[in-house]
Amino acid sequence: MPFGLASHRSVLLAQEKAGFNSISDFNNININPDDHISIAKELKLDQKGNINALSSCYPIPAILEEQGLIKKINENKIVKVVLMSNDFIAKNPEAPIKFLNSLRDVYDFYRNNKEKTDDWYLKEAKLNIVQRALDIATSIEPNINATSREEIYLNFTDEDYKIMQEAADFVYSQGEIKKQIQIKKFIDISYLSEIE
Fold first, then answer.
1. What distance in Å separates the CA atoms of residue 124 and residue 118, rounded to the nearest whole number?
2. Cβ burial 106-134 (10 Å sphere, 16+ → b, else e)
C-alpha cells in the first residue's frame, strides 16, 4: 500500500477493527502506486504468495480487477473536501459560491459526456486501460447517476462526517497533527443554499 494516502489509513483501520494489531500481525509495506500494476502482474505469474493483499487508489484496483489479476475483498469510501481559508473568503466573498457552481457544472458535464471525458483522462494520465476499468473506478461516484444538474449532491451525509472524523482521529493517533479536532467545526455548508 502507499503509506500516507487514504488507502493506507483504510487498511490500518480495517486491520484494527478486525481485532488485529496492524504492526505485529501484519507486514505492511510502503509501495508506490506506480508500481502496483507491475507487482500484481508478477504475483499472478509466479504465485509465490509473497504479497497477500494490495491496497491502492482508483483507477489502479479497477485496472487490476478488469485484467483478472486481483479479487476485490474490500472497498472503502473516501471523502474529499475543498478548503478555503477565512482570509481568502474575506478577500473573495464570491469565491465559495462560484466554486460550488463550477463543481456542480463539472459533475454535470461529466455525467453527460462520460465517454469524451474518460478519453481525455486516459490521454492525460497515459494509462493503457480499457473502458470497463474506468467504469469500475467511476462506479463509486454517486453523482454519475444523477439525472439532472439539480440532483448533483455537493453536501455531506452523516456517513461522510463519520469517515472524515475517523481520518482526523487517525492522523492525530499517528502523531501527524498535535491537536485532536472535531471535523464538523471546520465545515461550513451555508454556501450550498446560495448556489444556482
1. 10
2. ebbebbeeeeebbeebbeeeeeebeeebb
Helices (H), the chain: 6-17, 36-46, 60-66, 86-91, 95-112, 114-125, 131-138, 158-173
- pLDDT tens for 109-120 read 999 998 899 889
Closest CA to 49 of 39, 34, 58: 39
In the block, residue with C-alpha cell 497477500: 52
**Per-domain residue ranges of the chain:** 6-66, 86-194
* Amino acid residing at 102: S
CA 79-40-4 angle, to 5 degrees, is 35
Q: Which amino acid is at 109?
A: F
**pLDDT tens sequence across 120-136:** 988 887 777 778 888 88
